[in-house]
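Fig. S4 source data, part A: sequence.
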Amino acid sequence: MQTRSGNPALQNGLIFGVILGVIEIALYFLLGVIGLILNVILFLFLVGLAGYRASARTGKVSTGLLAGLLTGLFSSVLASILPLITALTNVDALRAQFQAQLQQSGSNVYQNFTYTNNVVIAFVVLGLVIIIIGACLLGLGIGSIGGAIGKGRAPLSAAPQYPYPGPMYMPPYPPQGYAPPQQGYTPPPSQEYNTPQQYPPLPQEYMSPPQEYTPPPPPQGNN
């Protein structure tokens, strides 16, 4: 993941995560529900951009995937700080609101249930943890898409290089001044040859003199 200028996944994840977290907080408190919708659209765009920029520097889709994960993590954690502080400072009012909603539901199952401050804080923390996990998973998917697009934009020096397999099978060259070891010549072992008298005699039919060949008479033509 690292290049000569640092870790592109961490750099882009941190930069875009902080920017996205600050914008999410501002839009949510300024625009309410409309700000929440804009936050989702902005999240998809910035996470994909982080993955694109990271993979464009390394030529690897995994770099963009990690950048998207870190962007979702940093932005969701930063955006969760202010709601957590608000819940801790107004825990009594929040507990009363939860208790009133429970009484209005009319459910007999939780009729005798009473909210406490610890239960309210636990619910708030659990909800924020679920949001952070969801942002990380969504960041993985969007970051991988941006990384797949940005992979082709990587310079040749940053793209993964694969060694050519040819030199692996070439024998190493001998060093300069190399002289092969001198080995003495060893003649082949001498072989014994049989004289003609030592071979067995041929059968009698092969020893008979050749017969004279008598050519056939020439054909006589009709006069």
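Fig. S4 source data, part B ends here. The chain is about 55% helix and 0% strand.
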